[in-house]
Amino acid sequence: MSRRSRRDRSLWVVDPARSAIRFAVAVGHLAGVQGCCARFSGLLVWDDRSGQPVAVGVEIDAGGVVASQTQCDLRLHPGDFLDVETYPTITFGSRRLDVLRADRIRVSGALRLHGVVRPIELEATLAAIDPRPDGCDTMRFTATTDINRYDFGLRWSQPLDGVRIGDRIHIELDIVAVRVEPGADLGPVPAGLDPILAS
């Protein structure tokens, strides 16, 4: 498979140092458990003729998912919850992108989490595109979605401080991506992002 950009499309690589993926799970009526993903990578394909996105994908190292509550953090990685030894990565790949208006996009795709693949939708906002003379343009966008953890087999139900943890996980992405020069060789790409390169 070619790992080089097409002439009519540009490839953008997520910059983890300037990006963030966060999550929150309600405990009772509060957003009691919050956390972030410390290690991830991502790609975005942009149609330069239409000025619209074509595909987007993200791969997360499940072992880098960290919760704010120590009690939950200790149970995230073993079989209690994510079971990272069996399912070391979390991946999302778009299947359809609908432009709602100039800066708003509905991203429909498949999320693979805990060995389960299910369709989800994200509401994304293109915050800014910063052209640079050297061609290393940057793009910033945000996106949000909510999933039901039971849909992905995340069934740990031990109360936290005597209060039941909620079913829904709220996910927020704040992403900065850098444009790759046409014809640039990306080198090794996580296997979960290969379908994005084929877009």
Plain-language structure description:
This protein is mainly beta. It has one domain: Lipid/polyisoprenoid-binding, YceI-like (Lipocalin, Beta Barrel). Helix content is about 5%, strand content about 55%. The protein contains two helices and eleven strands; from the N terminus they run ββββββαβββββα. It has helices at about 70-75, 195, and strands at about 10-15, 20-25, 30-35, 40-45, 50-60, 65, 90-100, 105-115, 115-130, 140-150, 165-180. It has an eight-stranded antiparallel beta barrel with strand order 1-4-5-7-8-9-10-11. The longest helix is centred in the middle third of the chain and has 7 residues, at about 70-75. The protein is globular. The termini are close together. Mean pLDDT is about 85; it is low at about 1-5.
Write the layout of secondary structure elements.
Elements lengths: L8 E6 L5 E8 L2 E8 L2 E8 L4 E10 L3 E3 L2 H7 L12 E13 L2 E10 L2 E15 L7 E11 L16 E16 L13 H4 L2
Antiparallel strand pairs: 1-4, 1-11, 2-3, 2-11, 3-6, 4-5, 5-7, 7-8, 8-9, 9-10, 10-11
